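Sample entry (557 residues):
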Amino acid sequence: MAKAKLDDIDELTKENIALALWMKEFKARKIPAGVKKRLLSKKNSSEAFGERMQFRIQELLGNPDSYTLSYKKRYKKLLEYCDSLTPMQAYAMNQLLGMDSSRGYQDIPHESDIEFPRDFAPQLGFQVGWHFIVGNCRDTRRREYGILVSFYRYSLLPPWIAQSFGLSDWDNQIFEMQLAVARAGEEHLQTRPFAIAGTTGLLKCSLEPFHYEAGNNRMVSEKEDELFPLRVQAWGVNQGGEEDVEMEVDLNLTSNKEFLLQGNKGCLPCCCSIGTLYYSATNLSLEPGSLLILDGEEIMLNQGQFWFDHQWGNALEPMGNSRCEVVRAAGTLSKPSQSRGWDWFMAQFSGEREMTMYAPHTDKNLDFYWRTDEEPPGTMEVAVKGQYIDPENKVTDMKGTLNIDKWVKSVKSSNPELYLITNTWYPDHWEFRFEDMVPEDIRHFTLTPIVETGQTGYNAGGSQYSEGGVNIRDPDGKFLGKGFAESVYYADSHPNALLLAGIPDTPEMRKLLKPPAPSPLLKLKGFLYMAWPPHQKKIKNILEKCLEQGLPADYLG
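Predicted structure, serialized as tokens:
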């Protein structure tokens, strides 16, 4: 009886559960008994996911944020598809919500309150968060690899709504994992991303020591009250080539420096209850005994340098409203930003020196995003900010310029039936220039990918990104170190999000997904609100603080 009911679960959910448990195919007899019980529970049913999403959207409809564009038509249309939802459909539908979807989550504090070991764990009251590890390494034959492992979690509902349906914080999560491996000079491979709901019972986390697992994938600390040494195990299947390629990593990492608190002491930014809290371990060593299995070949890794990020917050996926009414009112007086996304980099130079760099997308460069032409774009110039960490762990803020003058087209997918090929142009060569806040030998350098065929992958919810290992060289070609480069939201994510949400990709739906235009009445209300001098003073103080902490000016309008 139980097996028959398990067989009634939709195929994509079964595939995702199988992948989380390191199986290429779903086999009911291999599902742990406790997980079987959770899979068959009412909380995990398609009807329950649909009911909860209906409540979520109706709550947004009935209680719109003040001084906010109207999503009424969009939400009424989405409700037509909420009668029954798989976990993946509910997850993808969240990506289609409006700016008001940032409401109801745990507030980002006014100042950073990062605390260890508490914040080794995922912070489930916030909308989104991830534990992210990237780095470059060598095997015993001196072959070079770039490796990415990301544990990403998303709160489907604001905590108060989840609790009203009897869900725990873990029940309310959708978890997805990214695993990608590139061998220098060959091909970049990404395992087919999976997403599983917390209602399956497959997600677990504990402290003392830190232990975070999703199925058979796990991050485990070896010491109480310390994150490192850290063991990372992950597995998956690349399905985009002529044959499937199984991939597995078993990494042992130790830290050589104290944590870097990103932005303003860990705020990037903390602004009107939205933004992110963010810390990094910038200089990790790969320890002997680490293993990579690629297409059946066991590869012993004996040298490598990695980077770790833990970041969490609100109003990123999707972009969300400020929780300060005065900021929303001020936003009605300017044209809403059309840009979304960012470029992020980490660089590890000789001499125990590191950099982290960030360039948010801007409306000035809109012509470089969503490009699918036959010819690549021209040269894009963008301002870049970052932090330099010297050998003694002293941190210096830095500013500079970034030129992107080479592009590569994304023409593959780890599973083309689920994650549509976008044919989008992505950056493929980066040139940085910084001022005198960093040592002279690393003020001007370039990043070049370790493979020539692009390094794009997909989030389970449908959005595409590019991320992979890079070599760092000075203008004369001298080798300076290695790093990773990330480009996010260069491609139109709507086709995949609609496909995964079970919603037809029609002209009507596309029109509803465009940012709505502010009505004359909304503009008038905003103007009158901001005409009062105390409101003008308040917005000035807020903007100064938010921009100091790294929030792009476009974000606030």
